[in-house]
Design a protein that fits this description.
By secondary structure, the protein is an alpha/beta fold. Helix content is 29%, strand content 27%. It has nine helices and 16 strands. Strands 3, 5, 6, 7, 8, 15 and 16 form a seven-stranded mixed β-sheet that branches. A six-stranded parallel β-sheet has the order 11-10-9-12-13-14, sandwiched between helices. The chain has a three-stranded antiparallel β-sheet with strand order 2-1-4, with no helix packed on it. The relative contact order is 0.16.
């Protein structure tokens, strides 16, 4: 079977197309015939490594997320999964078996059923972005622990960077849960994407004062902030956070230090929660997977231009180009077409 591997860290050109023998699933594993492989920033960061040229042994297949069909199961995995469509997350976390290959061995606990009404494109786009967004939306004082219709009713959510993959996911999940959604973007083009995702209010932070505009919409402040640029936005967040509100930080501003204004955050008993999906609490992760699956079944989450998340497709042999696109900050979701 065809697979993409890297044996040393570095630039995208370390990714190599090879032919590997088809492996049988071990205990607790299923073998998935991958149709789409999703590329996230953590994928290129793992490939790049802390120091270029570091040997990787065994060879690593990149990419955490994907979607496909179960074609074999190992001991302890129910045979009823055979032939079913699934979406995959964290396939390559501390494992060499990513989704940039025709057949991936995936732990049973890292796959969920993909309804027939959902495309493989959607399935491969769920994992890291939607689980991260779920975490960001459920760490506020008093919860909710679950998302779904009515769970965020009466709450206001501010999504920083609504045109990004996590921002798009946060908007869609928050709207599904009946929150009032405000988002910030950096251009009219990105504003259009955020509106398509379902944001109620879109603020262009290069043309408008974010604090003034947010306070017009939510005079008492917002309940939850899903934050992509904490170091840059800390002062803004402190001025718009409401009583018992939370700021969920899921990205690193290129290593910039974070300085917080203490007094303005003490008064509302504000919470800052750092989010790294791979090490998130096990109980939360199961809830998140179940909720995201329910949103898919409800038809509440989408991908593509009409959903504010343009798709960029690359064939398997061009996985290096797919990684380079994500590393360059392309707007939208990058997918590798593994199987037609």
């Amino acid at each position: 079977m065809r697979a993409i591997v890297y044996t040393r860290t570095g630039d995208p050109d370390v990714l190599t197309l090879v032919d590997r023998p088809l492996a049988e699933p071990g205990a607790g594993e299923a073998r998935v015939r991958v149709h789409r492989s999703g590329v996230n920033p953590t994928d290129w960061k793992a490939r790049s490594g802390a120091r270029a040229g570091t040997p990787v042994d065994p060879p690593q297949v990149p990419n955490q997320d994907g979607a496909g069909v179960v074609d074999a199961v190992g001991p302890g995995v129910e045979e009823a999964l055979l032939g079913l469509r699934v979406w995959v997350w964290e396939s390559a976390y501390q494992r060499p078996e990513g989704t940039a290959q025709e057949y991936a061995l995936v732990p049973r606990n890292n796959l969920s059923l993909l309804p027939d009404v959902a495309s493989f494109d959607l399935g491969a786009s769920l994992g890291v972005p939607f689980l991260t967004a779920h975490r960001g939306l459920t760490v506020t004082e008093g919860g909710p622990l679950r998302l779904g219709p009515g769970t965020l009713e009466g709450r206001t959510v501010l999504v920083s960077g609504g045109a990004g993959a996590v921002g798009n996911a946060a908007i869609q999940l928050a709207r599904w849960s009946d929150a009032l959604v405000i988002t910030t973007v950096s251009s009219p083009e990105k504003a259009n994407l955020a509106a398509r995702a379902g944001a109620d209010h879109v603020i262009d932070y290069k043309q408008q004062d974010v604090v003034t505009e947010v306070r017009k919409i939510a005079p008492d402040g917002v309940d939850t902030i899903v934050e992509v640029a904490a170091a840059a936005n800390a002062e803004i967040d402190a001025q718009v956070i409401g009583m018992h509100g939370s700021v969920a930080v899921y990205a690193d501003d290129g290593g910039a230090p974070l300085t917080l204004p203490v007094r303005p955050l003490m008064v509302p008993n504000a919470r800052w929660q750092f989010v790294y999906v791979y090490t998130g609490p096990r109980e939360w992760k199961r809830r998140a997977v179940d909720d995201v699956s329910a949103a898919v079944l409800d038809g509440a989450v989408r991908v593509g231009d009409e959903a504010g998340l343009p798709l960029h497709h690359f064939p398997l042999e061009r996985t290096a180009d797919a990684h380079a696109a994500v590393e360059a900050g392309v707007v939208g979701k990058v997918l590798v077409d593994v199987t037609d």
